[in-house]
Amino acid sequence: MELEHAGAYQLNAGSDRLLFMERLRTLKELYQSQINLIAEFASSFAEERLQGPLLMDPTTYYHQPTKLLIVGQETAGWSSKYENVEEQLITYRKFNLGEKANSPFWNITRRIEEQLGIQPLSCAWTNLNRYDQAGKPPAGMVLQALPSLDFLVLEEIQILCPDVCLFYTNRKNDHRLTALYPGLQFSDIEGLPSSLFARLTHAELPSLTLRTPHPKWMQLKRWSATFLATFQRLSNNASND
C-alpha cells in the first residue's frame, strides 16, 4: 500500500537503511536539544509524581511499506528518569509498542497494523501529553502546563514522515491540535459519529490522518468494529487514489 504524505518522499531499497539511521539520529538530537526544558517541566511539579517523558525510539517503523504513527494521550506509568534521554529510549524499546499489553489501545493498533499489511509492533508511537501523573491522566495545573511541550509532537511528525497518522486524542484535545497546525480542517467520516471522529486535513499531515476517541472508549461504546471497518475502507480508497 502506498499512501501520500504531503512533503514526504518515498523510501527505496537503496536508501532505506541510511535514511532510517539518519532520522533516528535526528529524533535523538531533538530530545537531547530539549531535555533541559523537558526536565525543568517535571522539576516544576516535583510533588505531582510525574512519570515520563515518553521519548520515541522506533526500530522497525522505517522498514515498513506503510509507515503508521499513533499519537495517544499519555502513558499509564513510565520511567521517571526525566533528565536522561538514553534511559527513556531504553524504556521505549523495552515496552516494545505494547508487546505484552492486553488493552484496547494496543489491541486496536495491532488490528490497524494488520489492515495496513505491515508487521505487528511496527508502528511508531508518541503521546500528546509527554508525562502522566502518578500513572494516571494529568490534571489541574499539570494539564494546563503540558501544552508547552506539544511542539515535540510537531517535530516528531516532521522527522518521521508517516504515511498514516491516528490521533487517539479525543475531541477534548482538538484545541491543542489546531494550535500546532493553524488552519487544520476537521471533516466528518461517513459511518462514524461526527462529534467523536474526524478526518484531519493539513499540508503538514499525511493524507490519511484521523482523530478518534481513545480505543478504550471505543470499546466501551462498541464503536471498535465500525471504526476498523471504516478505516479499512479509507485506507483502501487512499491506496487506490
Write up what this structure looks like.
It is built from 8 helices and 8 strands, in the order αββααββααβαβββαα. It is an alpha/beta fold. A 6-stranded mixed beta sheet has the order 3-2-5-8-7-6, sandwiched between helices. Strands 1-4 form a two-stranded antiparallel sheet. The longest helix has 29 residues, at 16-44. The chain is globular, with a radius of gyration of 17 Å. The N and C termini lie close together (11 Å). The relative contact order is 0.17. Residues 4-11 have low confidence and may be disordered.
Q: How many domains would you count in the coordinates?
A: 1
What structural class is derived from the secondary structure elements?
alpha/beta
Radius of gyration: 17 Å
Q: How is the main sheet built? A: 6 strands, mixed
Would you list the SSEs in sequence order as H and E?
A: HEEHHEEHHEHEEEHH
Give the strand order of the largest sheet, numbering strands 1, 2, ... along the chain.
3-2-5-8-7-6
Q: Give the helix tally.
A: 8
Please tell me the overall pLDDT.
93
Write the layout of secondary structure elements.
Elements: H1 16-44, E1 50-51, E2 68-72, H2 85-95, H3 104-116, E3 124-127, E4 132-133, H4 140-145, H5 151-160, E5 164-167, H6 174-180, E6 185-187, E7 198-201, E8 208-211, H7 215-220, H8 224-240
Parallel strand pairs: 2-3, 2-5, 5-8
Antiparallel strand pairs: 1-4, 6-7, 7-8
Helix pairs in contact: 1-5, 3-8
Structure keywords:
single chain; 241 residues; alpha/beta; Uracil-DNA Glycosylase, subunit E; two-stranded antiparallel sheet; 8 helices; 8 strands
